[in-house]
Design brief:
single chain; alpha/beta; Rossmann fold; Elongation Factor Tu (Ef-tu), domain 3; ATP-binding; RNA-DNA_Helicase; hydrolase activity; nucleotide-binding; Helicase_C-like
């Protein structure tokens, strides 16, 4: 819970000196600041802006307090941003509240519920996660009672005045024309920055655009730099003002430290005032470099330093993480959250804490009591699950783990223990930074890279801000501590940008789906075009149009300002030079084929690379490969630069590095003697000296091996490339500009002009696209797919098939519908039907384990045939879909596990079949049950009672035991 809802010393004035609490409506003192109004009180500040819809301009000042009693009182002084936001809501306007983690945004959500109850109006609170919705339901129910919950899995008191639900449920209710939504006066969107999530962010945009025009909004977000732009979109879309209340004030200031991997000290790089300490950061980088050099000299360079994630348990040297946790406990900086971005790494690091006893006897007894009280709802078999038994000894020592691979009930137990102060060190993935306010005194980052589905990347500054914001408990700590483990893979500029960067901007991730189109087409309300035009993505695109046009004009001006003497001739010469380069590249591609070049790559062979040939100045180096590097490019000593080819006059450090064959232009007929071991610096220096001696003996260039006579290359492609190369070189030699003293300057000017022209053309195309409807081409393509597959008719009306697909939101709607209409499920048993549905749910790559049983091979083949048919239609409709990749994305890895679960197997048995984390398996089973419910709804639309019964039976059979254990928050 955010500040203001805890049973502990209240934040604000009372917590610091017992000053009398101000009334809710106490006057704020505003001053204008940088286009916004800056509100100050007791040293705390908040900025206020308001976006008015076109044609309805009003005051830009913060609204005055409401006359009469407040909907809810608080036993502490509200911060300026809280009071300003409440005043905005009481005015009947929408508001976006952007504030740091732990600042107290939940106060706003609570007040919204209180307003609804006072005014006898319905309020909806939405969150991105079912777990967060469960937690908020419990919190609101304890205070207001007239509260309901809708998450898909659970429905409690659906007619309550205050309804807590996931955003997906709200969107579904809007598409279905729910009476409940039409009655809603205020909608609270918690964690609105989820709108930029690539997969699920579109749900936020759909629900906002489709919300009743009479509804007002309270958006709660982490700090975002473009809050004003988002508010302008809301005002534009709903025709009513939207205020922005923004605060950088952090109730508990943070200090940021860097811990160089392999080192022994901490360096404060950002102080509690937010100032970046460049001198300390330089010292940290130097310490990191020294540690890397020491590791390399001792032969330890092949490992990732001494990071705990790769350190074998039981090694003599203590890992960095172990040292850091011990230091944190010694300095009483606990509780601490240690963020890692791998579930396996979280568990490995926690296991390294086996020697630590962080709880006393009383705390250990409390942990055990809470744990067994929670687990008591499980069956005897589920209480014996390996994950359940393995985690209790760790928890009793005061160490916890929190990631998506844990059983949901264990995650909730760990959250409760952490909130109660019974866990001192928690190893967690990024998901722990979202949701209820569960701060710690200290936050540690074990690394700064994360896998985002496509590859590993550095954390953005916004992600770092979100997670580091967990440090510092309001009213308990005078400051929070954040520690980042820095390793040699991170450039200083990257680290500085992360530690001292700005929050991520709120950008649209709007995209189309078939379910969206079908729901819009059948609903008789907004059309797909209207939804696209009202989206935040369209709004951002149109707002960028003036800047795009200005950029195009500026680039065109740059292009026109470049004067090239005799431009036509220079353009002709440049085209010939490009032709020569292309031919040389084609010849090099044949030359460097392993069959041609490898027999001649003996140690000591001199070769030329980098596109210039061995006779180009400074173009010599020894294959396998000796290069010279500037001192500041040596690994671990600052910014890395590309190693330069070795030459006699080269200055720097000779190094042996790998070189791709494709970088070799030509081979020399000469070889030099090399020392057997090039690792010692002296041996590399001797090799460098030998290269210099060869250069002196051949001042006009080294003799080359002839590709055809010596390397015996008879490939026609090589001869063709050589002929093109010779032709281009001959024409260049005879060209009128050949030998012109200012040729290089003219070519450079032409290149600048052409680059500016190309950039201007791109900018013009972007501006033209911004003028039109976003995703217009994709919308046409998706409509073609729906029409060709029979989901809409020639007039664009939704058919029965389309109405069935509109019911499916948790799996591929077209594929499931095709399976329903082709009768694949008709002859299946309940177990087989559940197993087949799991193939639509589980689409993760990797070894899910198990083989496909004979009973499922036919249905699985039918699934793939249907997927291939859909894929071909989509490809023909120019959707840009790879058919075989689409077909392969439906995986049967969990089919056998779901088959056995439906037959009554224990969770332990199916966990052995699936070979994945227990929590991941729980989510897959729950998602399968969700799709089964949607398939039953689709069968009802078809009028197929037997088919509906099949899916309902499947849903009932798998909905049991630990997989569907009730939330501890309910």
């Amino acid at each position: 819970m955010d500040a203001g809802s805890r049973k502990r010393p209240a934040p604000g004035a009372e917590a610091r000196g017992g000053a009398k609490a101000a009334r809710l409506g106490e006057e704020l003192i505003p001053t204008t600041y940088a286009g916004a109004t800056l509100i100050e009180q007791d040293g705390k500040t908040a900025a206020h802006e308001v976006a008015w819809p076109e044609g309805l301009e009003g005051s830009s000042a913060p609204p005055a307090p409401r006359d009469g009693p407040a909907a809810k009182g608080y036993p502490f002084t509200l911060d300026p941003f809280q009071r300003c936001a409440i005043n905005c809501l009481e005015t009947g306007h929408s508001v976006l509240v952007a504030a740091h983690t732990s600042a107290g945004k939940t106060v706003i959500a609570q007040y919204c519920c209180a307003m609804g109850l006072r005014d006898k109006q319905r309020v909806i609170y939405t969150s991105p996660l079912k777990a967060l919705s469960n937690q908020k339901y419990r919190e609101f129910y304890e205070e207001f009672r007239d509260v309901g919950l809708l998450t898909g899995d659970v429905t409690i008191n659906p007619n309550a005045s205050c309804l807590v639900m996931t955003t997906e449920i709200l969107r579904s209710m809007l598409y279905n024309g729910s009476e409940v939504v039409r009655e809603t006066a205020l909608i609270v969107y918690d964690e609105i920055h989820y709108l930029r999530d690539a997969e699920r962010g579109v749900v936020w945009e759909e629900s906002i655009v489709l919300a009743p025009r009479t509804a007002r909004f309270a958006f709660l977000s982490a700090t975002i730099p473009n809050a004003r732009e988002f508010a302008a979109w809301i005002a534009h879309t709903h025709g009513s003002p939207c205020h922005v209340v923004y605060t950088d004030f952090r109730p508990t200031p943070l200090q940021h430290y860097v811990f160089p991997a392999g080192g022994d000290g901490l360096f404060m790089v950002v102080d509690e005032r937010g100032a970046f300490r460049q001198d300390n950061f330089a010292k940290a980088v130097a310490a990191l470099s020294d540690a890397a050099t020491e590791a390399a000299s001792s032969g330890a360079g092949g490992k990732r330093g001494k990071k705990g994630a790769v350190q074998e348990i039981g090694k003599k040297d203590e890992s960095d993480i172990s040292k850091m946790v011990r230091m944190i406990m010694a300095r009483q900086f606990d509780p601490v959250i240690i963020f890692s971005f791998s579930k396996k790494e979280c568990e490995a690091l926690a296991l390294q804490m086996q020697a630590l006893e962080l709880n006393n006897d009383d705390e250990r007894a409390l942990v055990e009591g809470v744990f067994w009280n929670a687990i008591d709802c499980l069956s005897e078999a589920d209480r014996r699950l390996p994950q359940v038994g393995a985690i209790l000894p760790m928890l009793k020592r005061g160490v916890g783990v929190h990631h998506s691979g844990l059983l949901p009930i264990l995650k909730e137990v760990i959250e409760i223990l952490f909130q109660e102060g019974l866990l001192k060190a928690l190893f967690a993935t990024e998901t722990f930074s979202t949701g209820l306010n569960m701060p710690a005194k200290t936050v540690v980052f074990t690394n700064a890279r994360k896998f985002d589905g496509g590859g590993f990347r550095w954390l953005t500054s916004g992600e770092y801000i979100q997670m580091s914001g967990r440090a510092g408990r309001r009213g308990l700590d005078d400051r929070g501590v954040v520690m980042l483990m820095l390793d040699t893979r991170m450039e200083p500029a990257v680290a500085q940008g992360m530690l001292h960067g700005a929050p991520d901007a709120l950008s649209s991730a709007f995209h189309l789906s078939y379910t969206m189109l079908l729901n819009l087409l059948r609903g008789g309300g907004a059309t797909p075009e209207q939804l696209l035009r009202a989206s935040f993505r369209q709004f951002q695109t149109e707002r960028a149009l003036p800047a795009l046009r200005a950029r195009a004009a500026a680039l065109e001006a740059d292009r026109d300002a470049v004067e090239v003497q005799d431009e036509a001739a220079v353009t002709e010469y440049a085209a010939l030079a490009a032709s020569r380069a292309e031919a040389a590249a084609a010849a090099r591609a044949v030359l460097t084929q392993p069959a041609h070049i490898l027999p001649f790559l003996q140690p000591g062979r001199l070769a030329g690379g980098g596109g210039g040939g061995v006779n180009a100045p400074g173009g010599q180096y020894i294959v396998d490969v000796l290069v010279s590097c500037a001192p500041d490019s040596v690994p671990g000593r600052g910014p890395r630069r590309r190693a330069q080819p070795m030459g006699a006059g080269a200055e720097g450090v000779p190094l042996v590095v790998p070189a791709p064959l494709g970088e070799i232009d030509a081979l020399s007929a000469l070889r030099i003697h090399l020392p057997q071991d090039l690792r010692p610096p002296d041996a590399r220096a001797l090799a460098l000296k030998a290269v210099g001696q060869v250069e002196k003996r051949h001042p006009r260039g080294l003799p080359l091996l002839d590709p055809e006579e010596d390397l015996h290359i008879s490939d026609p492609a090589f001869r063709k490339a050589q002929r093109k190369l010779e032709t281009a070189e001959g024409r260049l030699e005879k060209h009128a500009l050949a030998g012109a003293p200012d040729l290089a300057a003219r070519l450079a000017a032409l290149a600048r002009k052409q680059a500016a022209g190309a950039a201007a053309a791109v900018a013009r195309r972007e501006a033209k696209r911004a003028q039109g409807l976003i995703l217009a081409d994709e919308l046409k393509a998706r409509r073609r797919v729906l029409r060709r597959l029979g989901y809409v008719d020639a007039e664009g009306l939704v058919t029965v098939k389309g109405r069935v697909a509109a019911e499916v939101q948790s799996a591929d709607e077209l594929l499931l519908t095709e399976l329903l209409f082709t009768g694949v499920f008709q002859e299946l048993s309940v177990e087989a039907a559940v197993a087949l549905v799991s193939c639509l749910v589980w689409r993760e790559r990797g070894d899910g384990g198990g083989t496909v049983r004979a009973e499922l091979q036919g249905p699985l083949a039918a699934l793939r045939e249907a997927a291939r048919r859909i894929g071909k239609v989509a490809a023909e409709a120019r959707m840009g879909l790879d058919v075989e990749e689409y077909v392969a994305s439906f995986r049967p890895d969990l089919a056998d596990a779901l088959f056995q679960w439906c037959r009554g197997a224990s969770f332990a048995e199916i966990a052995k079949l699936s070979h994945i984390f227990e929590g991941t398996l729980v989510r897959a089973v729950r998602r399968t049950e969700e799709v089964l419910r949607q398939a039953a709804a689709g069968a009802a639309v078809m009028g197929e009672a037997a088919l509906m019964e099949l899916f309902q039976q499947g849903s009932a059979r798998i909905k049991r035991d630990v997989v569907f254990a009730a939330s501890l928050y309910l």
